[in-house]
Amino acid sequence: MKQLLVSFFSFSIVFVLHACAQKNHQSTRVETGFSVSRTDDEWKKILSKEQFDVLRLKGTERPYTGKLLNNKEKGIYTCAGCGNELFTDEMKFDSHCGWPSFDSEISGGKIITAKDYSLGMHRIEIMCAKCGGHLGHLFDDGPTITGKRYCVNSVSLSFQKFSDVQKKSASTDTITLGGGCFWCVEAVYEKLDGVISVESGYSGGKSANPTYQEVSYENTGHAEVVQIVFDTQKTSIEEIFKVFFTVHDPTTLNMQGNDVGEQYRSVIFYRNTQQYSIAKGLIDQLNKQKVYDRPVVTELSPFSVFYKAENYHQDYYALNKTQPYCRMVIQPKMEKFEKLFKDRLKKNN
Ligand SMILES: [Zn+2]
């Protein structure tokens, strides 16, 4: 009898695993589109057994057991499988359901959903858009303004604490922004009162120390960005963002005017939750008031590293005013900025 039970259980386990594997296999349509894809054996080498069961086999951890359930620290929640940034501490709330819960996600399509009819229920499954890892489920019963509850397994998540370096210092702050061609964005911020320095460079991609050539013609994932250091006594992150939404079109995905490509995407690389929530609030406001004809597609991503661009890209507009691109593309942006922010220009300009 014991033997029979043992063989019954091993049969069941084999069957269950097979069923899950099949389920995964059926979704190859999505899997092939993931930028991070590994075989089960490869995943097993980098994930713990619990992480593999949940992320790859769509299991569920027991409620009230996850180590991030009661985490209240400031920082970013990432996918435990691939590091994709999914939530910030400001989106987390205590739902008393036994799993970490969030009321929104970091924008930019980092999470994908699928209908889940398992266990005789109708649910919306949430997965990491980068590796397809199972995160949990999304419900419409959230208590905050979004009405959403992202119910996530703690083992599906890693947590990155905001380091002291990233914390806002008392009198200066730094922000990294992508708004199409960096020559244009840099030129504008050079004139704003309170801006201490502006540097053109690259951020948000995979390769270290990329060149302009690589960012322009290879699939580096980097965006052309400017890194702005500013005096918080003279200007503010709100003003920096308002200028940003004035001088570029935040509604065109991966393009800016005639410049087309991922490197021209509209993106804010925030360094702390304050920058994130102010940017998100402003975007929500712009959408609500229909300031643009189309919704804002600006990506909000946590800052990781900035690579300064080659010297000839620095102060490009100031040094090349007569160039056709400068006259046709940058000059109108400068004029718009100077008109709308005329009381906020540096006095020595
Ligand atoms: Zn992932």
Low-confidence stretches: 1-31
Q: In percent terms, what proportion of residues is strand?
A: 15-25%
The bound ligands are: zinc ion
Overall CATH architecture of the largest domain:
2-Layer Sandwich
CATH structural fold name of the largest domain:
Peptide Methionine Sulfoxide Reductase, Chain A
Write structural notes for this entry.
The chain is of the alpha+beta class. It folds into two domains: 36-161, Metal Binding Protein, Guanine Nucleotide Exchange Factor, Chain A (Beta Complex); 166-344, Peptide methionine sulphoxide reductase MsrA (Peptide Methionine Sulfoxide Reductase, Chain A, 2-Layer Sandwich). It has ten helices and 17 strands. It has helices at residues 2-26, 28-31, 40-46, 49-56, 182-189, 212-217, 237-247, 273-288, 316-319, 324-340; strands at residues 75-79, 85-88, 92-93, 101-102, 111-116, 123-128, 134-139, 149-152, 157-161, 172-179, 195-203, 223-231, 255-256, 259-260, 266-270, 299-302, 306-308. Strands 3-4-8-7-6-5 form a six-stranded antiparallel β-sheet. A six-stranded mixed β-sheet has the order 16-15-10-12-11-17, with helices on one face. Strand 5 and strand 6 (123-128) form a beta hairpin. Helix 5 (182-189) crosses helix 7 (237-247). The N and C termini lie far apart (91 Å). Zinc ion is lined by residues 79, 81-82, 84, 128, 130-131, 133.
What is the fold's blueprint, element by element?
Elements: H1 2-26, H2 28-31, H3 40-46, H4 49-56, E1 75-79, E2 85-88, E3 92-93, E4 101-102, E5 111-116, E6 123-128, E7 134-139, E8 149-152, E9 157-161, E10 172-179, H5 182-189, E11 195-203, H6 212-217, E12 223-231, H7 237-247, E13 255-256, E14 259-260, E15 266-270, H8 273-288, E16 299-302, E17 306-308, H9 316-319, H10 324-340
Parallel strand pairs: 15-16
Antiparallel strand pairs: 1-2, 1-9, 3-4, 4-8, 5-6, 6-7, 7-8, 10-12, 10-15, 11-12, 11-17, 13-14
Helix pairs in contact: 5-7, 5-10, 7-8
Bound molecules: zinc ion (ZN).
